[in-house]
Design a protein that fits this description.
There is one protein chain. The chain contains 15 helices and 13 strands. It has two domains: 9-170 and 361-376, Glycogen Phosphorylase B (Rossmann fold, 3-Layer(aba) Sandwich), CATH 3.40.50.2000; 178-357, Rossmann fold, CATH 3.40.50.2000. The radius of gyration is 22 Å and the shape is elongated. By secondary structure, the protein is an alpha/beta fold. It is 42% helix and 15% strand. Strand 1, helix 1 and strand 2 (39-44) form a beta-alpha-beta unit. A seven-stranded parallel β-sheet has the order 3-2-1-4-5-6-7, with helices on both faces. Strands 10-9-8-11-12-13 form a six-stranded parallel β-sheet, with helices on both faces.
């Protein structure tokens, strides 16, 4: 489709622009809107990624959208309504629940179109939580980050299929390209992480929190046939020092103290993934999508993923990766042993299939622009 150069204004709203998949997607969509001749606005409480919005051709407007206080949500609705009128906003795209409530109210007052992206599974344990979450299902079009999330939205909120669009987050295949990663980038990380030459590297990328399954992987490492394999946990601890201590003590107890590396946040993820002989996703709760899985697949790395949530849709067992029972160290260890024993030509075939199948940033951008074009062709409401 050609989106042309007709003027249109899109306002994306989210709590803040610090780091994460939601924030990255916001920047990528702002870039697409600007490239298509539209005006790309982003409202949030700010953060280090504001500069990336502006570099992508967007404009950031600072509003206190990082609060769940009902009175603040109501005040933010008035602020957003004023912004919509002043900037002549056609579409408001909400990416998080508290800002979405403010945006929905503002759209009702101004007649702007309302679109949402349902990014997560959103817990419902507390009273009224389903009602709070339901605003993400009120979009004229509701974007789901995966078929898994689309099924969840239909079941929980009775959203009809015609109002749902499945648009996976994408990876940049030019950045995550094994052929484009210079050897010196890989060597620098190997030296920084003290990785011995010639031993298998089993890597789990993801922030350090219990449900991401770092503990499951450490237990699995103790069961491997390869007793020399090194476990590398890549990701920020975000102040979870107690959890770090628990992981280190568990590794020591299992005799893995000298084979565990806590690498912290990696600025150069393509180079980090290039170091891995196996990339593990071990989450024990379902994830909406799982960006690190497709980044690893784009790098043609062997991926072993927990058989739940978004990775079920991106990892075809035995074809583009492997899936294992979540939270089961025995099953994970068996899968790692299997992958480490495979001949190079089989690994290359799986890696090539995985790279070819991954969703791309460009695909996500074009599909989102199509959503905007579709809602602009109908009455608001």
């Amino acid at each position: 489709m050609s989106h042309g150069q007709e003027r249109f204004v899109v306002l994306q709203v989210l709590p803040a622009l610090v780091t994460g998949g939601v924030e990255r997607g916001t920047v990528e969509v702002a870039q697409a809107v600007a490239a298509a001749g539209g005006t790309a606005l982003v409202a949030s409480a700010g953060g280090p990624m504001v500069a990336e919005v502006e570099a992508a051709g967007g404009r950031h407007l600072t509003l206190p959208l990082d609060t769940k206080d009902p009175r603040a949500i109501w005040r933010n609705a008035a602020r957003l309504a004023e912004l919509i009128r002043n900037e002549r906003v056609d579409i408001v795209h909400a990416r998080s629940r508290a800002p979405a409530w403010s945006a929905w109210l503002a759209c009702r007052r101004t007649g702007a179109h309302f679109v949402t992206t349902y990014h997560g599974t959103y817990g419902e344990a507390l009273p009224l939580k389903r009602h709070y979450n339901a605003v993400m299902a009120r979009g004229e079009i509701v974007i789901a980050a995966s078929p898994f999330i689309a099924s969840l939205v239909m079941a929980r909120h009775r959203v009809e299929a015609a109002r749902l669009r499945i648009i996976p987050r994408g990876v940049d295949p030019a950045a995550f390209d094994p052929a484009a990663v210079a050897p010196d980038r890989v060597a620098r990380l190997a030296a920084a992480w003290r990785l011995p030459a010639g031993v298998p590297v089993v890597m789990l990328p993801g922030r350090l929190t219990a449900w991401k399954g770092q503990g499951v992987l450490i237990e699995a490492m103790a069961l491997l046939s390869r007793r020399d394999a090194v476990c590398v946990l890549v990701g920020a601890d975000q102040g979870r020092h107690r959890y770090i201590g628990q992981l280190l003590r568990r590794a020591e107890r299992l005799g893995l103290g000298d084979r565990l590396r806590l690498a912290g946040h990696a600025e150069d993820m393509p180079a980090a993934l290039a170091l891995a002989d196996v990339v593990v996703h071990a989450s024990t709760k379902p994830e909406a999508f799982g960006r690190v899985v497709i980044e690893a697949q784009a790098m043609a790395r062997p991926v072993i993923a927990a058989d739940l949530g978004g990775p079920v849709d991106t990892v075809a067992h035995g074809l583009t990766g492997w899936r294992v029972t979540p939270g089961n160290p025995v099953a994970l260890a068996a899968a790692i042993d299997e992958v480490l024993a495979l001949p190079p030509d089989r690994l290359a075939t799986v890696g090539a299939r995985a790279r070819e199948a991954v969703p791309t940033v460009r695909g996500m951008q074009q599909a989102t622009l199509q959503v905007y074009a579709d809602v602009r062709g109908r009455p608001a409401g």
